[in-house]
User: What shape does this take?
Amino acid sequence: MKKILITCLMLALLLVGCSSDKPEEKSADQPANKNTAETQSAEGTSDVGPVIEKIKSDGYITMGTSAEYPPYEWHDIEGSKDEIIGVDIEIAKAIAEDLGVELKIKDMQFEGLLTALGVGEMDFVIAGMAATDERREAVDFSNPYTSQEQVLLVLTENADKYKSAEDLKGVTIGTQLGSTQETYAREVFEKENGATVNSMPDNNNMVMELKNGTYDVIFMSGIPAEKYADMQEGLSVVDIGAPPEDAYSIAVKKGNTELVEAINKVVDKLIEEDQIKTWEKEFMDLTDK
Assistant: This one.
């Protein structure tokens, strides 16, 4: 009888030990899985899931942009009314309409957009953004929707000074922080032509500094440069033969193939209908001296 009792007690202890082991293993697995998921998400390799379904369920899609880049996106202020308008906004509206949802816009500085996209603050970025190889390592891009020349924006009184890159020796050049123009200017104008390159996050402030004499010239994309020259007296655009930048595309979180395909469908249709060029002309015409 004593042996039977001892045997029963040993079995009971064994069962308790087995049952107490299972929660510890599960608890240990959960943090491991969580860390793996976070790592994959940060690297852009995780499965994004039914993205379109979630967007439709939420009833809205969020666009990230930097609204100081006319005619693609800028603040149109009339009295107390402040509206972000431009070519990129119209493209975003078309995407939202195709999905049957509302468009929300998150406006922030250009250099922070891709980081914000990566952590889920927005669904896509349209901000006159060139799809460079470096950016493609961090995000996925749609089909291109437009392309740009790269030019100088200068004071009209100084326009005759600049014929080529060789004329930039000793010149202070303004570029937008994080832009392809900043990269090119530092690699070519600064290293090869002896210019000094200073960058700012906001194009509007950069144009003010040009007029104040902080910069001798601004190096930027062609159509926005023309827009600023139209909007403000005393500014001119000068072509010094710089190569065109990479075409503009819409950025989406890495691995989000479903949303890229949905966006491509809209972009391809707009291009086929020549609608984007129409918008570029319309918003260029919305200039007041």
In short: Residues 150-238 form a domain with the D-Maltodextrin-Binding Protein; domain 2 fold (CATH 3.40.190.10). The two ends are 106 Å apart (CA to CA).
